[in-house]
């Protein structure tokens, strides 16, 4: 008998015991189990799980009637409204692939993406109609355009589509038998990642990965059917970290939010009893800006999941003082959103505030559905010792890693070299197994032959009571090659000059790590809240060449960004890999 034959003989894989995994099946379950429970809230609009399923199936039917089938791309340029939430189910139900595009992209980039993914239909919120019309004109071929006409939109442009969203839903038949998914490896979504150093990459998600990451979100964050999730995270960003599918999996309630503004967030939390929300650290900063009286009046026990750089310690302390909890996670567009989580240990609660903040800043351990995490030498793939100091590249492996880059075989092969996803992030592993990101490989500053992690300097600056936000990049230097240049955003009502901040950094950092230049002003950010470091690098380079009009630290330091940086994101729209 050959090896394993005993358990292979007469035990066939069949429809009864093997079904392809897809997150769209969560919609059927919630509609069957909790048909009248509210699934979706948007202002006064409330949709039950039964009604949501009916609308999604009708829309899927309409999409099929317009030629969408297996592998057909449906693009969307939309805000966080119920329409984009519904498209996360309707498009894969039709067999198609959803490409939710960053709403802050320029027309040329949108046109490139529509052509690259061979989009057949484009849904457009009327706020973005003008730029979408420009993109379609540049496309040079026909594409069906469907308007999303949101009455809450304050900047509605003229409609450009052949019909609006509701008319398309009415075209479909919710009772139509939709084709079953045959292969869980089929694509479910497409997300475009950073194009700041070349053409954007189209990250392809499969049904299996989306299913598993949606479940992982629920397990990692202990979500139940009683959760009320506020959409402070863009749905176009990693498909909202898969949370549309997660909310369907647990039968919770999703509260849509068109614009992420302090007043809108606070009002939604108070009105709907929000229990969970996600976003970049800037979302926490916005909530903190509402003031202690407002925070004290809100529901306690709100859970906040943040990614990218950890929020400033002062913000974490202010938020948690009101009974909220902050969970730090890590992931990439290439990993469906968060796949690592800073699992909090009960014994850490006894540490002092500074120690707790340092522990909370770590990216943590693998989530439930990620198979493995490794910090290793990027050339040899040999693991680094877990000693809190040996820096290596962070590698991921698991079913919730992307299918690959669309039409970019070489990039896909490079990303998966050695059987791991190469993240490009530099990290250390602590003796307890928890991982801490030290920097992006491209963000490391090499000054006089010494490697300097920008995150270490940023964390030091964030601890200063006057600093609301900080970002550090390399500035060319004729003697040292490059030196740290800090861009600082002060808290409202606070003041500090460059020399004072540099003096503070000297008390907490090795001297060679202390920034030699400080520039004050609002930090340029992407639509997902990430600081646009490529903009800052250009500013630092121009500053070093004496062309930007920005002053160094040994002047008064009271400088501000040029007006051109307000347009930088429009000219160079990013979708950051690490969120």
UniProtKB/TrEMBL annotation:
PROSITE patterns per the record?
Answer: AMP_BINDING (PS00455)
Q: Which SUPFAM superfamilies match?
A: Acetyl-CoA synthetase-like (SSF56801)
Q: Which UniProt keywords apply?
A: Fatty acid metabolism, Ligase, Lipid metabolism
Q: Where does the record place the region Disordered?
A: 543-566
**TM ranges:** none
EC number of this enzyme: 6.2.1.44
Q: Which domain of life is it from?
A: Bacteria
* NCBIfam families, A to Z: PRK08162.1
- What is this protein's name? 3-methylmercaptopropionyl-CoA ligase
Native source organism of the sequence: Endobacter medicaginis
């Amino acid at each position: 008998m050959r090896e394993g034959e005993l358990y292979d003989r007469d035990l066939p894989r069949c429809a009864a015991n093997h079904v392809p995994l897809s997150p769209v099946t969560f919609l059927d379950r919630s509609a069957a189990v909790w048909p009248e429970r509210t699934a979706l809230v948007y202002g006064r609009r409330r949709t039950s799980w039964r009604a949501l399923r009916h609308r999604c199936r009708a829309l899927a039917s309409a999409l099929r009637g317009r030629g969408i089938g297996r592998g057909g791309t449906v693009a969307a340029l939309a805000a966080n409204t119920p329409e984009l939430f519904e498209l996360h189910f309707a498009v894969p139900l039709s067999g198609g692939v959803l490409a939710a595009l960053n709403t802050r992209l320029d027309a040329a980039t949108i046109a490139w993406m529509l052509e690259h993914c061979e989009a057949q239909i484009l849904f457009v919120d009327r706020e973005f109609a003008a730029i979408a019309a420009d993109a379609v004109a540049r496309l040079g071929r026909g594409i069906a355009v469907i308007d999303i006409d949101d009455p809450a939109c304050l900047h509605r442009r003229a409609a450009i589509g052949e019909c609006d969203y509701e008319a398309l839903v009415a075209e479909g038949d919710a009772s139509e038998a939709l084709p079953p998914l045959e292969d869980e490896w089929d694509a479910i979504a497409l997300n475009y990642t950073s194009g700041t150093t070349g053409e954007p990459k189209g990250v392809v998600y499969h049904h299996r990965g989306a299913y598993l990451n949606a479940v992982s979100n629920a397990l990692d964050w202990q979500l139940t059917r009683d959760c009320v999730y506020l959409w402070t995270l863009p749905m176009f960003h990693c498909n909202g970290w898969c949370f549309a599918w997660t909310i369907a999996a647990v039968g919770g309630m999703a509260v849509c939010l068109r614009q992420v503004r302090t007043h809108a967030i606070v009002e939604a939390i108070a009105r709907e009893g929000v229990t969970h929300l996600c976003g970049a650290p800037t979302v926490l900063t916005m909530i903190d800006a509402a003031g202690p009286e407002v925070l004290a009046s809100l529901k306690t026990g709100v859970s906040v999941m943040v990614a990218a750089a950890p929020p400033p310690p002062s913000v974490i302390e202010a938020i948690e003082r009101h009974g909220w909890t902050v969970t730090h996670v890590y992931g990439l567009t290439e990993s469906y959103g968060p796949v690592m989580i800073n699992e909090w240990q009960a014994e850490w609660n006894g540490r002092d505030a500074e120690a707790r903040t340092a522990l909370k800043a770590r990216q943590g351990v693998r989530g439930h559905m990620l198979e493995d995490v490794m910090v290793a030498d990027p050339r040899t793939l040999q693991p680094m010792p877990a000693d809190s100091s040996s820096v290596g590249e962070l590698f991921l492996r698991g079913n919730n890693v992307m299918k690959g880059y669309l039409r970019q075989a070489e990039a896909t092969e490079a990303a998966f070299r050695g059987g791991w996803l190469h993240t490009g992030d530099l990290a250390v592993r602590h003796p307890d197994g928890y991982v801490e990101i030290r920097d992006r490989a491209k963000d490391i500053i090499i000054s006089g032959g010494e490697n300097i992690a920008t995150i270490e300097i940023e964390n030091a600056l964030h601890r200063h009571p006057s600093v609301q936000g900080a970002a550090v990049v390399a500035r060319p230097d004729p003697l040292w090659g490059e030196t740290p240049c800090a861009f600082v955003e002060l808290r409202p009502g606070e003041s500090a000059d460059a020399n004072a901040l540099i003096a503070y950094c000297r008390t907490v950092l090795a001297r060679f790590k202390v920034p030699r230049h400080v520039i004050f002003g609002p930090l340029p950010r992407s639509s997902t809240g990430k600081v646009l470091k490529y903009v800052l690098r250009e500013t630092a380079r121009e500053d070093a060449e004496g062309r930007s009009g920005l002053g160094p630290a040994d002047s008064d330091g009271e400088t501000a960004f040029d007006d051109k940086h307000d347009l930088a994101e429009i000219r160079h729209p990013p979708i950051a890999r690490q969120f």
